[in-house]
Every structure is written in C-alpha cells, then in structure tokens.
Amino acid sequence: RPDYDDTPIPEFLNPFWMASIPDDQPLSAITMPGTHNTMSLYGGVYAECQTWSLASQLRAGVRFLDVRVRHVNGNLTIHHGVSYQWAHFGHVLEGVVDFLHEYPSETVLMRLKEEFSETNNIYGAVVDFIHQYAYWDLLWHSRLVPTMGEARRKLIILQDFTGPDLGIRYGSLDIADDWKV
C-alpha cells in the first residue's frame, strides 16, 4: 500500500530533524513520530509490527520507541506477547547510544513496559542493563518535561513499570493509547 512502507530499509531518511527545533521549545509541544512494538520483527501476522530495524527506524525519524521486555532471571528479552523477538534490552540501549552519539541534536523517548511476564519487578534489571549497555548520564532524570535543549542527546524513559523514577511516568501522560485488534 502507498501509505505503508514494508521495504527492508526506509525510502526516506531524516535522522537529524530535531536539529532545527529551538532549544527553548518544550518537548511536550513537539509531535513525535513513533512505532508500536518497535522491536517486533518476528512472529507472523499476529506479532510482527515492523519491517525496519531499530537503526533504520531512528534514521527515518522515529523518536518514540515502544519497547516490551520479558523479565526472566534478571534478563530482559524483547517480546511481543508470547513471541520472542531475538533481541534483548541491551541491544536496544546500544542502538540508542550509537544513534545519539552520531546525531547529538536528537532525543529518543522510550516507553518501557514488562510483557509476557508478571514479575512486576523489572526496575533492578533495567538499571543493570543501563549500566552494562549504556551509561547513567544518557538518561533524563526527572519527572518534568524537558525543553529540546535539555533533551538533546538524551534517552527519556517513559516508565511503564513500578520502581523509583528513571524518567517520566508513562501513566502521567495524556496519550491516545486506545486500541483493539
């Protein structure tokens, strides 16, 4: 279909579109292109949501990532429901770090949610993965919405799990998140 690009790589790339946004612009005033189940590349018609890799999505201009992790014995694998996506949270963090190093004018928002496990205790594992695959200062450490200048070269966790604050609480945002299959 002309409104859906399912080619292996994006036809249109816009990796530094945020560079022209004034530093004093609140991030809440910016429309963020995003993907649902960002890492869902496998599992057939009921699980696949994307055809582009994380790196391709970011280079195409996507700045909102929807990441679902399954927590098993301290590991955070990427899942869409029961479908394992052949990745773990460390792969996502490495991809975001690489992108923000190459394009320091940009920021990435990441909804992080537990999927297909119900430990309700992923906070410790998330922190461990951040220390192992990224670095602590990469994160925006506030519940307050930053300006574009404050957000540049930062990962803003939209925390959809319990535990101390790692960023902005997903539940505190006014987001149109109604859906049905």
Automatic annotation (TrEMBL):
Domain Phosphatidylinositol-specific phospholipase C X as annotated: residue spans: 23-160
PROSITE patterns listed in its UniProt record: PIPLC_X_DOMAIN (PS50007)
InterPro entries: PI-PLC_domain (IPR051057), PLC-like_Pdiesterase_TIM-brl (IPR017946), PLipase_C_PInositol-sp_X_dom (IPR000909)
Gene3D superfamilies in the cross-refs: Phosphatidylinositol (PI) phosphodiesterase
A Pfam family this chain is assigned to: PI-PLC-X
Protein name, entry field: Phosphatidylinositol-specific phospholipase C X domain-containing protein
